[in-house]
Amino acid sequence: LAYGEGTDNGRALFMPEGQKAANMTRPLSLRFAEMPTLEADSSHWFGKGKEIPVPGKSEDAGQRKTLRDAVKTWAKKRFSKDTAVSNADTGWQVQVTAKGIEDSLSHGFDDLLARSVPFIPQIVEGGIHVDSIPKTSRLMSHVFANKIKLDGKDYVVGFVLREDGNGNRFYDHELTEIIDSDRLAPVKQRE
């Protein structure tokens, strides 16, 4: 979609300049600090007898390939074309597909990224919209952020939704460890 074109039909739709949702006019640091952290334990998903029957950790290139392949195979079964979630911040419907998972795993794979995959629907549902970037006249990238405590460690999750004529779909994500969680709170709250 071209910047700001279209009408809201219940699918994701880029918000025209000057018509951002009221919540989005609040400072990002405040919105981020107030959002709940997603609690996630990957041991429920990875390992012998579990949905993804390989360990969630790898020690060499062969094990990384096995882990990546296992997560991709699981995603093909788990996320059909009809898997949609609603993002609470925007109200947009978002398709989570095996192709989106595969794209994300191809953009810098590591064990941490793999262990976060089962939680992508919840990450998308609770994320806050940060920015929208036109890629072409018919393709938008919407950037979001969320927080997750994965296997006992705090991370910031950045993720991208891609929007075209078919709506919004999950495209990519990455996790960055939060070293000092106090730095996520607005300055006035830290004083």
Which helices and strands, and how do they pair?
Blueprint: H1 28-34, E1 38-40, H2 61-78, E2 84-86, E3 93-95, H3 98-105, H4 111-116, H5 120-126, E4 128-136, E5 139-150, E6 153-164, E7 167-177, H6 187-190
Parallel strand pairs: 1-5, 3-7
Antiparallel strand pairs: 2-3, 4-5, 5-6, 6-7
Overall structural class, as computed from helix and strand content, comes to alpha/beta
Estimated share of beta-strand residues: 25-35%
Query: Number of helical runs?
Result: 6
Q: How many β strands by DSSP?
A: 7
Tell me about the biggest sheet? Answer: 7 strands, mixed
* Rg over alpha carbons: 17 Å
- Enumerate the spans where pLDDT stays under 50 for 5 or more consecutive residues: 1-20, 184-191
SSE pattern, N- to C-terminal: HEHEEHHHEEEEH
- Helical percentage: 25-40%
This entry's quaternary arrangement is single chain
Shape: globular
Mean pLDDT: 81
Distance between the termini: 44 Å
Question: Would you give an account of this structure?
Answer:
This protein is α/β, with parallel strands linked by helices and 191 residues long. The chain is built from 6 helices and 7 strands. The chain has helices spanning 28-34, 61-78, 98-105, 111-116, 120-126, 187-190; strands at 38-40, 84-86, 93-95, 128-136, 139-150, 153-164, 167-177. Strands 1, 2, 3, 4, 5, 6 and 7 form a 7-stranded mixed sheet that branches. Helix 2 runs antiparallel to helix 3. The protein is globular. The relative contact order is 0.18.
